[in-house]
Predict the structure.
Amino acid sequence: MRTRSCRLVVIALLLSLLGGSPAAVAENLNDNLAGFAPGGIDVSSRWLPNPSTGLFEKVTDAAAADPNQYKYELQCHLGGGDFNSVCLRDQVECKSGPEGKAGIPVVWLKAPRGLANPVWTHHSGPTCLYDAKPEDLLPRIAADIQRQFENLPVKAGSVVAQPSPHTLRGAETNFYADASEQQFDVTMFGQQVHVVATPVQYTWNYGDGTVLGPQSSMGGPLPQERWGEKTRTSHAYTATGDFQVVLTTSFRGTYSVNNGPPLPIPGQGQFSAAPQNISVWRSITRNYADDCNQNPQGQGCPGVPSAP
């Protein structure tokens, strides 16, 4: 009887820290501590992203790119219905989430993927989960993260041309991309989601019908004395005119929920940079026999019109 009474006191204390009141204990149990069951709190679920579907699944040995598997546990939880009373005094407050909802304080644990009965170790936290059914939260975010990723304002980078804005027909014009890793914070299903986008591949459309890529090389600058050399991303135009060069950059992404472990986004996001205008001119070579010092009015001398 004493043990049961102690458990009820500790649970009541936990609910009060979550923003509950004695009159709302039952409601808080349903809304904020989903996972409570007659046998205690279900903290045995293991989550891994399924590469083929992008969904999180409760698994034990599914294949995934991440060498780890993850799960969360209530902060200060000792097992069953027991909590560490000392820990509860310093527990993370989750009273107001992104949508004004109360949350639950959790810690994230990790273990090597594919091991039976692994030893779980601390990964991150404590942090908060803001959802009435946290056991369904990660699969919902995983199902929608690709769409969210593709709609982020990721900057594909800028196009740099050497020489620019004018180049010569038949000469190698060196193009390279100026792209970098970017980070975003978004709200999904009331949770704070941190997304990291890293450029991995580049596709060049040179505007004359020629496309290069996707390839891993973003190119790079050349010193001016080497302009005209062929590079992995250079292009030689065969006609004169004005062309628009478009760079499309493919980004690989990871995301973490409420400061949880970084998880891979299944597919890449492709983003295009603003077109870069370049004018291709023709070059004309003329040979002159006059020495301008001896005959300042000779063809090709300064101030003298060239012959058509």
Notes: Residues 1-46, 53-64 have pLDDT under 50 and may be disordered.
